[in-house]
From TrEMBL:
GO terms for cellular component: cytoplasm; nucleus. The keyword Transferase applies. This is Adenylate kinase isoenzyme 6 homolog. It comes from the Eukaryota. ATP binds at residues 16, 18-21, 114.
Amino acid sequence: MAARTLPNMVITGTPGVGKTTHCELVAERTGLKHLSVNEIVKDRECHEGWDDEYQSWIVDEDKLLDAMEDMQVSTKGGFIIDWHACDLFPKSWVDLVVVLRVDSATLYDRLTERKYPEVKLQENIDSEIMEVLLQEARESYDEEIVVELRSNTADEMDGNVDRIEQWLKQWKEDNAGGA
Ligand code: ADP
């Protein structure tokens, strides 16, 4: 296990649940770094091209993990990883997995606003209803580090950020000598 002096967390969930908004708030509040996987994939070309139908990059996971290693994610820690999947990150990198959840009507509105293609919109709503990301998180990590949080309203988001901040405080106390 790496002797990280700061933990890493993954904030995950179906597109539109509020990952980026949460990550930005948590970063502001805690000083941890917001690591947008989307931006790394784009900027460091960790992809095998563009999928026109889904309007998204086809991610090359090996390249992505190498890029994250270069950023010292596993050794230094202190990152809030923002991505709509979580099973690709090695268990040893991750100290907390937050799965954001939202009601399907709210998700529909958010994704419509984003002008998602119909096929992508429907798939994401189905995925949220079927709890795909929650299952993925539970299958990939120890259950005690997976937390499911609601993200329908600004109040819920505030409460979530408070909770994550508290968790970080506790982690620092528990790991005063490094992870
Ligand atoms: P994601 O990164 O998961 O795709 P975003 O953070 O981009 O989601 O959020 C999608 C949209 O929903 C944004 O317009 C954001 O302001 C809004 N939003 C996200 N979470 C909440 C929330 N808890 N309450 C109200 N609006 C939210």
